[in-house]
Amino acid sequence: MKFRYAPLALVAALALSLTAASAQTPTADAKALHIVIPFTVGGAQDAIGRYLGNKLATRLGVPVIIDNKAGAGGVIAADAVAKSLPDGNTLLLATGGAISIAPHLNPKLPYDVKRDFTAVAMLADTPMTLGVRSQSPYTSVADVLRDAKARPGQVTFASTGNGTVSHLTGELFAQTAGVQLLHVPYRGAGPAMTDLLGGQVALVVTSATSIDPMVEGGKARVLASFTSGRMPTLRGAPTMNEAAGIKGLEVPVWVGLLAPSKTPAAQVEKLSAEILAICNMPETRAHFRAVGAVPTCGGSKELAKVVTDDLQRWSKVIRQGNIKAE
Prior knowledge:
This protein is of the alpha/beta class.
């Protein structure tokens, strides 16, 4: 991978409170830093990007412009950054969808991940969970596996869409556990949760951010998280390894920053150092947790490894599951 090594109603409110990313009056000749976010305003990733933009504006003394370019699973935003001037003034708030999943599903992708991007910094994870409605007969992952083995291909799981990390995490779970589940794709977490609560589907694989309000409201339960350690929310739900003794299901749903591949090393190093300093602040970590993310602050080397591992993981899952783009 051609990543250069060098030293993410509450979420919406936090995001809207950070719309003015330039917190310090810039110098007259300062050139704006652009952070391109592949999501609409109001989500966890958007809140992370806007918070970071405010902090960078203060530390660097330059205006920071947040540019939301939602659509095509993040491909529109990634393509815009890949084709931008590599001068250190454009960053992509990247996630796995457009970077480590799309290359395996879209043969006409307008960029090459290994060729066109440079890793800058790792920010956070937005963990995935396996959930059921509160009235579900499943009280554990073992219950799900027992039923799935007795009724191959009949136990349904909802995802946030075909080819999303939600879908592929569910497929990874089924493949690793040696069972067949029936995938039911939805257009986002909202519709998936609605049908879960209504009993139209048995399971949902979705982010902790999406399901936690339902858990707190007594409408849903999390059987396990796809993490290496327990989440501070979700009422103490176990990890998949704890719940079923299944290893290899720690899925980092990462959020990081990428730059165009020919960005000068000095610029990458400067940005990486500033971002890491911000990421390691206690207030930053608290902010990330408030929007449902787990801080995983790291440099370009750490992010490059995560992306490389992610590419390999999803390649195997997609190939084994014969998953095709819609």
